[in-house]
Write a structure and sequence with these properties.
single chain; alpha/beta; Isopropylmalate Dehydrogenase; 13 helices; about 15% strand
Length: about 325
């Protein structure tokens, strides 16, 4: 499976681990069989990040995305959007502005077909807000840029061992029961099922839906949400022809034998989904945004300012995000 256009990677916060991990991913391109990608960022900064990490990474400026494939084997292609001193671990407003511009350009290139997919390196949300970024995060920005309602842009975390979709994401645990509805669960699970078929080549995806309460509520003795909200949502999915089971007790869903019975776990809240994913696939987890007209992935980690430039950050999740972006885009192209 191949794509005519390359993958575009946004730079992320220049003071975080994003730049050095993009260089490390390019250095591993042959061993990891990565499709061609290019970075929207700063040539000089990427060269400095590679040197800091002890990598021999030639960086070449390209004029248009179509030039990336021709030079990818010998150099990391970059659409240069300016210069900035490389100061790992020391975020600045100037760095946030470059991160924002990189994200905007990368999204636009994916939307107009100049890139087959976008892989976003990690940002610092609070720092971006200081320079005028109005969205809660990159996922919400991409949804708005693509004309998609935020509730229809679904986060899936995927690794070699497990895929999970949290129905509610960055909210306090006390607020989760009030946010859950039959329609919210049904909508997000349906988007996940459709995306697994379209982008992951799973003809009939199997969904395992977690209960909200311990033991999935035990027939109402530990809360009625599983009887009154989760179970009707699962029934609606099954009526629509989706292979879904649940509500299931979350504490028995994630051992190896259980995972073999489904393709994605639909979870009710953030940690119910991310704790097992990170326990199993911490260094290979990928954040995939489902429901968009473009393919978007991101490594499932943050800027890690504390270790930026030290060489401690591991490139596995960035490599996995680039690989998954290429595979999903190729399946769309072949459809």
């Amino acid at each position: 499976m191949t794509c005519a256009a390359p993958i575009v990677a946004s730079l992320g916060d220049p003071a975080g681990i994003g730049p050095e991990l993009l260089c490390a991913a390019w250095a591993a391109r042959r061993a990891e069989h990565l499709a061609p990608f290019f970075v929207v960022g700063s040539r000089a900064l990427l060269e400095a990040a590679a040197r800091q990490r002890g990598l021999d990474v030639p960086v070449r400026t390209i004029d248009v995305p179509a030039d990336a494939a021709a030079c990818f084997d010998s150099a990391l292609p970059v659409l240069d959007i300016g210069t900035l001193d490389y100061t790992p671990g020391d975020p600045s407003d100037a760095g946030a502005q470059m991160a924002m511009r990189s994200l905007e350009m990368a999204t636009g290139l994916a939307r107009n077909g100049a890139a087959c997919a976008v892989m976003t390196a990690p940002i610092a949300k609070a720092r971006l807000a200081r320079v005028g970024f109005s969205q809660p995060g990159q996922t919400e920005y991409l949804a708005e840029a693509c004309g998609i309602l935020p509730r229809n842009a679904v986060m899936m975390l995927a690794g070699p061992s497990l895929r999970v979709v949290p129905v509610t994401v960055h909210v306090a645990l006390r607020d989760v029961p009030g946010l859950l509805t039959v329609e919210l669960i049904r909508t997000r699970a349906t988007i996940a099922a459709n995306a697994l078929a379209r982008d992951f080549g799973i003809t009939r995806p199997r969904l395992a839906v977690a209960g909200l309460n311990p033991h999935a509520g035990e027939d109402g003795r530990m809360g009625r949400e599983d009887m009154e909200i989760v179970a009707p949502a699962v029934e609606a999915l099954r009526t629509a022809g989706i292979d879904a089971v649940g509500p299931l007790p979350a504490d028995t869903m994630f051992h190896a034998e259980a995972r073999a019975r489904y393709d994605v776990a639909i979870c009710m809240y953030h940690d119910q989904a991310l704790v097992p994913l990170k326990a199993l696939d911490f260094d290979r987890g990928v954040n995939v945004t489902l429901g968009l007209p473009i393919v978007r992935t991101s490594p499932d980690h943050g800027t890690a300012f504390a270790i930026a430039g030290t060489g401690e950050a591991r490139e596995g999740a960035t490599i996995a995000a680039l690989r998954m972006a290429g595979e999903c885009a190729a399946r769309r192209a072949d459809a």
